[in-house]
Amino acid sequence: MHFDRVVDTRRADLARSGPPPDVAALEAYAEGTSSAVLYLQLQSIGVQSTAADHAASHVGKAAGLAALLRGTAALSAKRRCYLPGELLLAHGVSTEQVYRGEVTEGLREVVYQCASTARAHLDHARHLHATSALPSAALPLLLPAVPADVYLTALQRCQFDPFHPSLQPGSRAHAARALWTQAALRWHVWRRSF
Fold this sequence. Notes:
The chain is an all-alpha fold. It has helices at 2-15, 23-44, 50-70, 72-77, 85-90, 95-100, 105-131, 145-157, 172-191. The radius of gyration is 17 Å and the shape is globular. It starts with a helix and ends with a helix.
């Protein structure tokens, strides 16, 4: 069922033209892709826990949204945009501006709102871990929260400019962030957290 959901979500995405209509559609895409993969992984190791599924839903949404934000520059070069159309319109940003990589205050605000949504999902998943008994076998599968957190922090430091050179592959900052992510992953594995 979860595998079919990933395929159906990807198929619907290929049929779509233009950006997703709103943040809810973007979250549904992340749920149907990233979260569904986490559900599959939990199922494959025999974890049957409502709390783990709930945490996986939020981690998947956070990781999925962060991945889409991280891919903004590369996707815009291919004339693909995953920033919600409703937010683009509200902040006076056209998809053509996104495709050209034009950074405006409106674009920063759109990215900020998407990043804030991702951060809220991440915080909620971590709150679930702190307040409910997640099965220990589920914890390693929730580690995609860590690279999502590292990227969202870097995006905030760049004032929510998804085209900032330090966020692009090949930059020194990108390489340093990769090392930091590895260290953070080890720290969270040792602490049995995500």
